[in-house]
Amino acid sequence: MRLSAIIFGASVLASSQVMAQQVTIRADHPFLGSWDCEVLAFTVEPSTYQHGQSPMTFIEVDDRTNDFLGMVLNDGTVFTLIEVAGQLNWHSPASGDTFICERQK
User: Are 5 and 68 in contact (CB under 8 A)?
Assistant: First the structure.
């Protein structure tokens, strides 16, 4: 795992309790779209993350590179999407869970 993923998760965990304005992911980020991780399916759009019934908004994102996307949702959930060896990995710094995901068409 990249050190930036660990630092991102640790640095925003404390700030996730603070209410912040909604932010968006840059529209050309390659991780936008629908993904299936076998135990988890989700959709990332520039202004929302949807897993389940209601889309969540972002209060913080790190979308500076094409192989990493860090997010804090409006409910305080922190997770990252990381490309490793051509595969997308969904990772939760809080639980330590990591899932390999495939793009859905």
Answer: yes
* CA distance linking residue 13 with residue 78, whole number of Å: 7
This prediction's pTM: 0.78
Task: List pLDDT tens digits, range 47-62.
Answer: 999 998 899 999 999 9
CA–CA distance, 3 with 5 (Å, rounded to integer): 5
The DSSP symbol for 81 reads E
* Rg, the chain, Cα only: 13
